Amino acid sequence: MHTSRSKTRPTGAGLLCASTKRKTTVRCAAANDEDLGSLFDSKADSKAEEKRPRTESEANNKAEESKPCAEAGEEQEDAKAEGSSAPSAGKKKEKEFAWMDSESEEGGDDEAAPAATEEAPEEKNEDEEPEVSAETLDEVQSFGRMMLLAPAMQKWLQGGRRGPADIVAACRALARTKFFDSDIIEDIYSVLRKLLRGERLDAAQTHDAIICLKTLNAYEKGVFSAVAKAFKAKTASMDAAMRNTWLEIFRGFGHDLEKDFLQLLEVPPVPPTMPSYRKVRCWHHSRDLCVLDGACTFSHDPRAPLSLGEGGREDWWRSKSVMMTQNQKTLGDGAYGLGPLGQGRLLGSSSAQ
Description:
Protein name: C3H1-type domain-containing protein
GO molecular function, one term: zinc ion binding
Oligomer: single chain
Number of helices: 12
Radius of gyration: 63 Å
Helix content: 55-70%
Zinc finger (C3H1-type): 276-303
Shape: elongated
Number of strands: 0
Domain C3H1-type: 276-303
Keywords: Metal-binding, Zinc, Zinc-finger
């Protein structure tokens, strides 16, 4: 006798029952007619048993399937609710702070207007060039300050008639700060030439200008030639230190176009009112270097004394047996005839006789 077993799969979360039907066994009706009744009874019982677990398993499976769907639906509804609430909340916030933004923008425009009006004068002040004058230039002590004044200074030099005090103040400021600007230097050259040709600069002012050019290593032939022409007849009244400084600067720049001026810087002329006028031997002529010729205030006679102080004993040697050379006479007091080793002994012997 065959028995039927129902093969079922355990149902769990997310798993469906594959089969709840019990397989029926085939019986021969002729072999056992008496069992027909029991056969139908067993079929009915099996059907009843099959219906009962099927309904329970299906109910469980349906319940389990419906749970994730329900949960997914709830999540979607929550998301929709949050999404709908977020824009509404954002709109509310925008509405709430809209009046603040509008007021701040209006206030910012109102505040920007006076701020712009306040900044406008400052910009104008910055754009305005500083006023340049002789007093302003005398106060300049730094290179940076001179750099700020440079544009205005150039216009100032080109703008009007600059006097001696103005150009001297400019030269002093440039030399003091060691500020070199080619455009400004060219303007200073132009003003210096005009003033020197008009003889409007004295020796001290010209000295400041020459010192400025030496400090900046700036040379212009026209300026130095104008200095030579303006002060050729004034070297006698110049200080010896100033003359030596000018001579050194002229030679340093290699300016030797006016050789007579350089000779007068080295040895100033003798005024006509002086006793030594044309009586003292010319030192340059004794070396064949005098370029003044007839305008020289010294004597070109080789027999002329070297100085009036030695004029009384200039020719003492003529009555003696000692003959000095020209070099000995030119050297003056020293070891030769006029020195203590020669002159004193010879004069002493002559006085003893």
